[in-house]
Amino acid sequence: MMPGETQNNDIWPIPAFYFKVAFHGAKNKSDTAFQEISGIGSQLDTDEVFEGGENRFSYHLPKAVKHTNVVFKRGIAELDSFLVKWCKTFFEGDFKSPLVPKDLSVHLLGEKGTVIRSWNFFQAYPVNWKVDGFHSTKNEVAIEEIELCYQYSNRVM
């Protein structure tokens, strides 16, 4: 633990199965229930620089931060869903209307439903939308996967 941090035994270890997603400006909150979220992460790109005359090592200088795309999985939603309508403007709209990115938050919840960790994603929009395969020999829920890229993110808690 870092100096000044306190460990709350009610939330340790943090569960990964209890979470919620909030699309800022979405009126239908029930439309943002997901089975799985993955891809939350950032990476610092570097430039490798070699010193003239010294061949034993190189310097790695920070260049830019890259963010991985965030992937959401859930059961296939109804056509009037906020998220489905928003994705359709990107994939089926022929770019006739302005494409509107959205801000969103992912909240990891504790046992009592309180937010214990939170990430914000700014100017997100869908870049991939697919449906998992169908199998006649399995009795499973049909799953859709929505992948979003975004301008930047931050961890709030």
TrEMBL record:
A family per Pfam: Phage_T4_gp19
InterPro entries noted in UniProt: CHP02241, Phage_T4_Gp19
Origin superkingdom: Bacteria
Regions annotated as coiled coil: none
Protein name, UniProt field: Phage tail protein
Organism lineage: Bacteria, Pseudomonadati, Pseudomonadota, Gammaproteobacteria, Alteromonadales
